Amino acid sequence: MNEFFIGLQFLTRISIVKQTVWTEESFGKSVKFFPAVGAVLGICYAVPIFIFIYLTDCAFPIFTGALGFFLNVVLTGGLHCDGLMDSADGLFSGREKDKMLEIMKDSLAGAFGVVSLVTVSALQISTLAELAKFLPMLLCLAVYAAPIIGRLAMVLVISIFPYARPEGIGKAFSKYATPKTFFIALIETFFLLLPILFLEVEIFMAALMSMCAAVLFALYFGKFVMLKIGGLTGDIYGAVEFLAEVLVLIIFLFAGFYFN
Fold first, then answer.
1. Tens of each residue's pLDDT in the chain, 260 residues
2. Strand, coil or helix: what is 163?
3. Are 250 and 156 in contact (CB under 8 A)?
4. Residue 92 domain-assigned?
5. Whether the Cβ atoms of residue 86 and residue 62 lie closer than 8 Å to each other
6. pTM (2 decimals)?
7. DSSP state of 166
8. How far is Cα 176 from Cα 134, in angstroms, rounded to an integer?
9. Residue 25 is assigned to a structural domain of this protein
10. Could you tell me if residue 9 is inside a domain?
11. Residue numbers of the domain that contains 218
């Protein structure tokens, strides 16, 4: 459980057990618990959204979407938003590999980073708003499933693609993660999504479709980054997670429309 709490403290602002000293090994081995961390976040997203929808009778769908995004940023500290911005600044800079890595390491946000964050955030908020108008229960289950599947996508790219830098926070993840780590995370994800099956079979099917789509997206995005910089970085891990979450929400929206 120590490795789970390390992952929880690193990926979120939730600190159940205070970890002050992390070994590289325990830090790296926390990767297999990332979907479980996502489940904690999913519950923290779904409960306030459900309460808000119940109290307002879903009268404010756009505000509901904004609330979902706000909870994401507050509970994760904007970690994955930062990863998306840095990744966009570097990957779309048109520079050589070393310069791209240097740009991604720069804490200052560039034009590509700002545009990418605004675009993806607007897409996430609007999708959440449409889910709120369409089927509130579907929204609550979508915001529960999205962070789980998003972190499964992160585990995949950590496990199978090399790290681009000789050192860095993400290096420990890459060093101790293997395809077996992804397999463990995949089984973990399936069981974390299983409660949806007892609520609605069709929504569970949407969750499985989302999981497959997120895995395929992570594979292709990882290959794209490999061609650019020869490996992945911690920022790329964050970008994969954020983009995969939004992809899951979109699939839930269209699946809900189809099943309805």
1. 778 888 888 888 887 766 666 677 777 788 999 999 999 999 999 999 999 998 988 889 999 999 999 999 999 988 888 889 988 988 887 778 888 888 888 777 778 889 999 999 999 999 999 999 878 889 999 999 999 999 999 999 999 999 887 776 777 788 778 889 999 999 999 999 999 988 888 889 999 999 999 999 999 999 999 998 888 988 999 999 999 999 999 999 988 777 66
2. strand
3. no
4. yes
5. no
6. 0.94
7. S
8. 43
9. no
10. no
11. 30-259
Cβ-count burial of 3 within 10 angstroms (0-12 exposed, 13-18 middle, 19+ buried)?
middle
CB contact at 8 A, 69 and 170: no
Number of alpha carbons in the 13 Å side-chain half-sphere of residue 249: 30
3-class DSSP state of 59:
coil
Tell me the C-alpha distance between 197 and 182, whole Å. Answer: 23
Q: If residue 199 lies in a helix (H) or strand (E), which one and from where to where?
A: helix 179-199
State the DSSP code for 232.
B
Place of tokens 């108008």: 133
Q: Count CA atoms closer than 13 A to 42's CA, side-chain side.
A: 27
Domain for residue 191, yes or no?
yes
Site of tokens 């769908």: 61
How many domains, the chain? Answer: 1
Half-sphere exposure of 12 (CA within 13 A, CB side): 27
Nearest alpha carbon to residue 13 among 77, 67, 72, 82? 77
**Distances 40 to 20, 43, 130, 224, 227 between C-alpha atoms, Å:** 21, 5, 24, 30, 34
